[in-house]
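User: Hi! I'm working on a homework problem where we have to compare a predicted structure to a textbook description. Could you give me the structure for the chain below?
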Amino acid sequence: MKPTLIINPTGSLRTLQNLPKMSKILFKVIPFDFIHSYVRPSHAVRLASYLAEKGYECDILDLATCIPFKRKKILKKFIDGYEYFVFSSHFHHYSTIIEFAKFCKDINPNVKIVVEQFVGSFMYKEVLDKHLIDFALIGESEKPLLDLVSGKKLSEIDGIAYKKNGKIYVNPKKPIKDLDSLPFPAWEKCKPIHFKYPPRYSVLASRGCPMRCIFCPESRWYSYPRFRDPKKVVDELEILSNSKNLVGFSDPNFSISKKNVKRICEEIKNRKLEFSQLIARCHIDFVDIEILKMMKSAGFTDLYVGVESLLPVSLKFLNKTKNPIGYIKKCKMLLRYSNQLGLKVASAYLIPLPGQTKQNALNEIRFLKQYSDVAVNYLTPFPGTPLWNKMKNMLITRDFSLFDTLHLVIKSHMKKEEIKEIHDYARPPSQSLKNYLDCIPIPAL
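Assistant: Happy to help. Predicted structure tokens:
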């Protein structure tokens, strides 16, 4: 059998290796923008590492590190060498996946195109029915992809959708119960094409989130929370321990389990690990002063907090918390305390939301900017979320390449000029340009 290629549609190329055994797979990462090309595609790396551990030849093509006008030329070189092309994808990769799938099929009709992550989990009916996609993986991709490349009968594979005789079949997903059964990511499998990577990595402590925010697809994708053994988490961290490395936890909600946070922090301290930055995403409802102290003492430098809003009516609409008033009070207290501890905080803020006006949004951002960097995101109804069901009739575009929270895709009660003023106040154009320039990839020599 030929190998498998996992493709990161946001971008980078993988140098082929002759690994032992059976089905060769190419993981593709689709190119999104320069900022994304600056980060290793951790999901693709973990998926490729899982297949390699099981004895299947598998490579990564990270198109994010490829000069845009050369992507198809590079992709063409791989088309005849692989049996499966697996696209790791967010919603904004949709158009690129469809374009690349057609490009591949035109050259080699026998290559099998697989989509996973968000497009695979929530848009499988559309891609299978309308486009040249052979399989969609639903939920966690490791086991269904392994079953697919090993030749298991499609009807017996959990978490896959496929088309047969004009009919779409969908097999329910089955979450991985034991995350410790997954191998450590083989970062060496991912190599850049035209731009080299900075020392940035991610570590996984858990999957899943108990919250049901109506705009977030992650809890629908990964299902209920499951945790890795804290010692194994820190074993993985220890491999990356370096005063020059930036490491972020990829968990949607790192602080769900206070017990696990404590054990991870204790292990980091006991092993005296060092990083230039250590970052985690947290939900206000699952953070307290004790957790902040533990994280600070263990060497955490940054927190990413999805504040979204400081208005009760907006928080209720988002289903962000069961107690909006308590959430707002706690949020303000924790931001102040993080500032006192020396923890750098990035606050995510959503517009436009019910109850928001230009003035109250500016007031809220003004407060947040006292204690954190503020990233204003546009409310985006992703397929598969309750927000999609509420707002799909309010879309002003169905161009999914714009579904990246950086573009307004819904009708708003606020004027465009007001929305732009709010966005620019949080991060003035001059600062946005600086951040962009800071993230331009370094040419690979």
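For your comparison, note the following. Residues 230 and 263 are 6 Å apart (CA to CA). The longest helix spans residues 324-341. Good luck with the assignment!
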